[in-house]
Amino acid sequence: MRWLRRWFAWFIRRAPRIRDLMFIGFSLLTIVAQAAAGSSGGWQARDWYVLAAGIVASLALWWRRRYPVMVTVVTILAMATAQIFVPMGLALLTLSIRRRDTMLVILSVAGYVAYVASYWSGNSDPFVLMFTGPFLIGTWVAVGAYVGARRDLMVSLRDRAERAESERELRAEQARLGERARIAQEMHDVLAHKVSLIALHAGGLEVNPAVGPEKVESSAGLIRETARQAMEDLREVLGVLRTDLSVAGADLAPVPRAADLARLVEASRAAGVKVTSDLALPDEVPASVGRTVYRIVQEGLTNVHKHARGVTTEVLVRGAAGTGVTVRVTNVRPVAADALLPGSGAGLVGLRERVGLSGGRISTGPTQEGGWQVEAWLPWSDGRSEASEDKSDGEEGER
Q: Which of 41, 110, 146, 170 makes the best surface tag, with the fewest CB within 10 Å?
């Protein structure tokens, strides 16, 4: 079976040239038969001319795919001068496969004229020639046009399938990259705050080595508890990343809520940060808005832990259904110039993306007193939901 597969592969690679040889052989057989039929009383000059013209027209079929128009013109001349039809029919077949345009129409009409003119001086009925010519030539052209159209359709379907496959792979790759980037942002939001709290507790023990054993025990307990929570959060997020079951962030845990703001602020106070808070957010705030508010406050306090530890910080959250939600985290100018932990700037980038997707706005920058402020405004409902609702309302109004 191996030799059969090799032979089949060889045949497929050389199939076009094999067809050329078959066409040339078939054409030469008809030419020889035609010349021999006309030389019943001996070979005359006309018979030799028919044979020579037929051989030239037949051999020209070797280049029928590369130069279909030129080969068709040569066979039409052979038809007009020597009444040789088969090479012209094969050339028109190839031309109609390759192209179906004005040139095909012109050469088909020229072939018809050559066919009628070559037999007009004979004993054939001119009316029979005028009606049989379109049938004979039209058959070759119609078969070639069908084969060419089918080939073009198959190529188009193949290209469309390949393009759809590549686009599907591209969309899948983009979805994977987007999912991983979202999970990475979620890991940053979950872990950066808790790691900064651990660093604050450890830094307090380092700065004040003479504190009593009760303070050391309390700080060690807070560090242990915060580290445990961080490990649990990391395990849950990594579990989602390994199983790849997350859909639009629905199963990324933990999912923060606006009701957790007080606990978030209290954790910073326990770490030694002087935080004053004004949390006036109703319980009926949408879950997506509450989650974004939580992330804004969390990132603001995390930056305070990293770059402005020990300074007074103010957290303000106010919102209502008619006016939206305002979030502001402001700290005074820090005394120490060095940062407790390095920062990559990814947190603020993630915040801008979150707020932008929610349809709100955010501003970050230094205050006039030398501190730092993160302020954001969010609509009461998700901006995307509002857009879809407005679109639905518009459609209902039109109906």
A: 41
